[in-house]
Structure formats: C-alpha cells, structure tokens
Amino acid sequence: MIPFLTSSFASYKVEQKDNGLRLDKYLALHTLSLSRTRLQELIETGFVSIDSQISKDVSLKLKEGQLIEVTIPPLVEAAPTPQDIPLDILYEDEDIVVINKPAGMVVHPAPGNRDGTLVNALLSHCGKSLSGINGVIRPGIVHRLDKETSGILVAAKNDKAHQSLAHQLATREMGRIYQAVVWGMLTPSEGKIEGSIGRDPRHRQRMAIREKGKFALTHYKSIKVYERLASIIECRLETGRTHQIRVHLAAKGHSLIGDALYGKPPRSIPVFLKNYLDSKWPKGRHALHAKCLSFIHPTTHEKLHFSTELPQDIRNLIDVLNLHI
Predict the structure, then answer these.
(1) How far apart are CA 250 and CA 52, in angstroms?
(2) β-strand pairing of 76-77 with 136-137
(3) Domain ranges of the chain
(4) pTM score, two decimals?
C-alpha cells in the first residue's frame, strides 16, 4: 500500500431498513462520490471497519446498529507524466471530455510508447479537474482506438462518469460508427460479420477469429464502390474487441487499405494507386476513422451525439480514387 499523509474519514450507523444488505452495496448507497468497484477495493485492502474491527469481506451481511467506518486515502499520482500535447476537443465538462484523436497517437503508455500518448496529454490538459478513478489520478479511458485509427473517443474525469460510460459500452448502449476504405467490393453490399476474436497463437501482435475467443459482431454497409478495386464502407460495432473491424474485414477478404498487419494489397493494382500509396500515404496508417459516437451523459442523462469529418489523409485517398475511377 502506498503511504499517505492525509485521508478522509466517514462513519455510518446501520439502520433497520438496511439490515441484511451487503457491505459493498450499503457503502455504494451511502458514499455517492465513489463507485462500487472502488469501494470494494477499499474493503479488500483494509480501509473499512465494522465496530472497530477491520472487515475485508465485501459480501458481509450487515446488522442494524453496527458502526461502519471508512478511511479514504488520498489519490496517488498516475505513473504517466503530464505532457502539453495539443488536443482536438469536441466537448468537455466536469465529467467527460470527448476528443478527436489523430492517427499516429497511442492512447495508453506502453512499452515502446511511454510518452506522447493521449493519456499524457489528458493528464496535462485536465490538471486538477481530474478526480480519482479506482484511487488513481488519471483520465478514465473507457474505450480505445488503435494507434493508426483516427477519430472520436470519450474519457471520464471521475469515477461516477467512468462507471456509467463503461456500463453503456458493456451493454451496447454506446453507439460507435466507423468509416473505412477497404480493398475490393463487399458481397453483399450490406450485412454483418460475426466471429469470436482472440489472440492469434502464431503472431502475438495480431488478433484472429477463434472458436474460443470473445463474441464479436460488426455491421457494415458499402457507401461507394470503385469497381472491384476498393470500397468506402461504414461499420457499426455491436461489440468492442481489440482490432475488431480490422480482423472481421480481413477475414471476409477485404482488409483496410494500408493495414500491413492484417492484409496486403491485391497482386495487381493500378499504377496511379500504387504510386500514391508508395509516395503519399502515411507509413503505417490504415484507412479507418471513428466517425460517430453517441452515449448518455453520466450526470445530465442527456443523449449526446458527436460526429467528425474524415481526416485529410483519407479524404486525399478518396480523391485519388474519384479522379481515376
């Protein structure tokens, strides 16, 4: 346990109406500033006592008259360092921040990408407005985008917002629509791709459709077809597995243009497109953009919708296709 200098303290007397409630549920009802997950963590690490005896049993049934005391340690700093990195912010209030992430930006620090990430930027941008999420001062990244995927994502500034958004994501209430440029022409032009996704046992950086993977479902619709060379498509996610769109489209034989991890260009492509991709297309970039995001605001309960234009690099690719086909 990280030592702390000051902490907050709360005590509660169990009333008759709460007799028989689980300890974690009772505290969740009475300590509104913390999520049930955070309270369970405090219980399990010895910060909760009942009648002066530490209790680490989150499911303990309470009895009328018991005195519950909770010590809430101060928030500790997150490991990533705040960095002053410009952000394209679409919306922000005291609970959430919605960002249009550029291609090439990693969301979370990881080996090989310890700084320059979205988390580093948010720690700097939000400063003291960030509350703790699971006891750590850090932005609550609810859903991620791959490094080379551009587009909209939402981050939570406090525990309550993070819990609400994570629930919406898990129950498929959060709407996410992507646009992509892929190789070939999808048949049928509109439909769904269903296939459980897990780690590729032969290539640890890749995911793959696997029988023992996690259920994944992607809806797609062709927006424009360039003969049999390429297509602009729209994808709507029912689930949010790692690399889901990339894996599903590659399995259907229509990988993203630029996606070297999951696909290769056709053996024969027109000279104009080959020259463009070799000389102008950003290295490592795959043509995928998170275009729309919708969810219920954690506090106001208002339905929020956000949408962005395709970034310039994908627009340039489409312009090349429009010009020649």
Answers:
(1) 59
(2) parallel
(3) 8-74, 77-169, 175-324
(4) 0.77
Exposed, middle or buried by CB within 10 Å (0-12, 13-18, 19+), for 302? exposed
For residue range 78-110, list pLDDT tens digits in order: 677 889 999 999 999 999 999 999 999 999 877
**CATH 3.40.630.40 is held by the domain 8-74:** no
The answer to whether the 8-74 and 175-324 domains have the same CATH topology is no
Which CATH code is given to the segment(s) 77-169? Answer: 3.30.2350.10
What's the pLDDT tens digit per position in 279-318?
999 999 999 999 999 999 999 999 999 999 999 999 999 9
Q: Tell me the Cα Rg of the chain.
A: 24
CB 247 within 8 A of CB 217: no
Top CATH class of 175-324 equals: alpha beta
Positions marked active-site: 146
Treating both helix axes as pointing N-terminal to C-terminal, what angle do 36-44 and 159-170 enclose, rounded to 10 degrees?
A: 110
